[in-house]
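User:
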Amino acid sequence: MTDDVRGTCEPRFAAVRAAFTASLARHDVGASVAVRLDGEPVVDLWGGHADADRSVRWERDTLTAVNSTTKNMTALCALVLADRGLLDLAAPVAAYWPEFAAAGKEGVLVRHVLSHSAGLPSLPGTASAEDLYDWDRVTARLAALAPAWEPGTAAGYHALTFGYLIGEIVRRVTGRTLGAFFAEEVAGPLGADFHIGLPARHDHRVAPLLPPPALTDEYAATAPPGADGVPRAAAGPVVRVKDVNSVPWRRAQIPAVNGFGNARSVALLHSVLANGGTAGGVRLLSAPGCEPAWQELFRGEDRVLGTPMCWTAGFGRFGDTFGWGGWGGSLVVSDPGSRLTVAYVMNRMIDRDRQEDDRGMELVTAAFGALY
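Assistant: Predicted structure:
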């Protein structure tokens, strides 16, 4: 398996390669890891296989679903618009989306949506993944919905609604879907191979997600219990591995969860925020425009996750770092102090209820260890 690791790794980051090699040998079927420092690539590795039968190699340009790691990219779109003066994070959502003012939501601010504190964590009336594909229907329901708590006073992970809320704000401001805006104004300028709403021409490069060991593709994402131990329905409809691997899912706009990419693209995009607004010589934001990514907006118990959280404008903050991960194991973490970004993307999922998943964090630890 060691010989299967391909790509480049600067010598000082040899520990990342070692951790990645070990993960491929122990847990992963196929995966990629990337590290960027000062906006430039220092690690770009991939290996393993794209299929459960291990008959198709994971290639340099293999893509896979990253699930909620997509939220980082959706938040980045909002920060780009804010930096351009087209979106005020302190303004009411209804200033851009007038219908949203219904049911007592006049005081919901854009920053409340970004920090999971808008009080809209659930999608009533949606029972299956198919219900998520009708953008206008879902956003109309959200516009009519009353908040579950006074916006800004509490937080509860907006697992699916995050993408529709930010996406509709982006659509009202730009006239484009979030996927189109992201492709044209974010991924395009950077040359990032990441997609929200995957065009058919990329299907041949997709490695399907593989359910955790001993489970089938009926394995579903569920909201964790709250602090009182009561299961939450806040995530909305049941989403199964088989749904995420379907063609309709790839084509849809579900900007909280249906991004497709690899570690190289995830790290490239996220490193913009850790490097003063630039990566690879391309400026996407001003330096001040990056700061909302790590500035605390809410700290306290998350009502959906049932754990203490610090939320910024679209990201989880953990000490001096910020980022987020996805169902099954993908993640991205950035540190603006050291200008370091680490991303990990894989196809073999791990069920955290059955098995500890430390794959991504071992890579993050190895990368940060190389700096000291």
